[in-house]
């Protein structure tokens, strides 16, 4: 436990918060850990409608931008006393794609008081499944879990807490509504066109999903909950969601001509603007996957975030599993990776206080370890320019548990772990983070250089930082003389670092 946690009131230590910056709505959930279980104590949702606020150039409009920031300010006030390590905030489809996403995230971080992680579609699907699974009986049934967001729809096959397939599709209740039901007008022809397009979007994934199979289909998200409630209250379905019931809802919407005009039991005003798009996606899914009935889950992505955060704090971090899987896939030399990681950690311990390698947003020690574990994965493609291959692989791969920023930081480190130090790649980060990442990369470079000979039993070097950019690397007597290749490599590194303003002395 760090100092900031120790200074928190005792009753806040067990509190966790998860914030989901969705394309249609922002959600916040606050829960308390009780004997290893999560007890929800507060929920809040605001219909920010980021996706609807995208202009023709793919930028968030001034209205959507400001309303999103204002919402996060309110969220930030509510969670200000919760320990920082217990808070997770993620952005999904719209923030993945908006042209001015970075500007929004810079202001959003200040408003919320916490870093916001942009997650890929598959990571979104993983967290959704984790949240839904924690609300279901712990049995061996195979499940199909579906979540309709504002800009994407996720499909997951899994059993208990383990998934076997994740997919994210580029269709959501907001985007489909915008594309096929402009100005809120609903006709039978438009409905058929929307359903057909959704079927085409899902079709490439159809065979894989059906081949894996499922015992029960479960829907998450506000759209699916709303449709389930409407079918039940209007007696269009006896239990859960059925295609027959949805067709009755579709006919009612077509007869009304607009979701704004129709009067239905269970239809909330906040859901009207996107109901028809979500209905088209759900009908298409039932047809393509031949689903007979779908149950509705009360849990979704934010609950998954809470459980994932709890796992990280209890050393059950899925990111470790992802790193190991990448090592295995790319046939990484594990002994060499472990040796470099051990030396890198020794150097890190000697440098982290002077270089202030601390952050509430990033675990620099773990980033360094993962970089050591993965820096040679590009060799499986080609030794020539392998650092470029490693960098590309890690930036582009779907790695469960990692957000896009973490993968970006690792990618930057891997590109710079040897060869010419391309410090300019860090310029897209804010100045404080860029400076720390350069320092962290220096540690990685030194560890890699020291282990160039792939010898076992190397002594622990001593790294002395006389001034921020003045370094001295010390070895046991005569060790460098006995390892001339390493000495030559370190002498090359002296020149490489000198070009970036560092002075390195080796003794």
UniProtKB/TrEMBL annotation:
Gene Ontology molecular function terms on file:
exopolyphosphatase activity
Domain Ppx/GppA phosphatase C-terminal per the UniProt entry, residue ranges: 318-493
Name the CDD domains on file: ASKHA_NBD_EcPPX-GppA-like
SUPFAM superfamilies xrefs: Actin-like ATPase domain (SSF53067), HD-domain/PDEase-like (SSF109604)
Q: Which reaction does it catalyse?
A: [phosphate](n) + H2O = [phosphate](n-1) + phosphate + H(+)
> Sorted alphabetically, which keywords does the UniProt record give?
Hydrolase
**Known EC number(s)?**
3.6.1.11
Task: List each copy of the Ppx/GppA phosphatase N-terminal domain by range.
Answer: 29-311
Matching entries from InterPro entries are given as: ATPase_NBD (IPR043129), Exopolyphosphatase (IPR022371), GppA/Ppx_hydrolase (IPR050273), Ppx_GppA_C (IPR048950), Ppx_GppA_N (IPR003695), PyroPPase_GppA_Ppx (IPR030673)
* Record family assignment: Belongs to the GppA/Ppx family.
Protein's UniProt name: Exopolyphosphatase
| Species whose genome carries this gene | Thiomicrorhabdus heinhorstiae
Taxonomic lineage is: Bacteria, Pseudomonadati, Pseudomonadota, Gammaproteobacteria, Thiotrichales
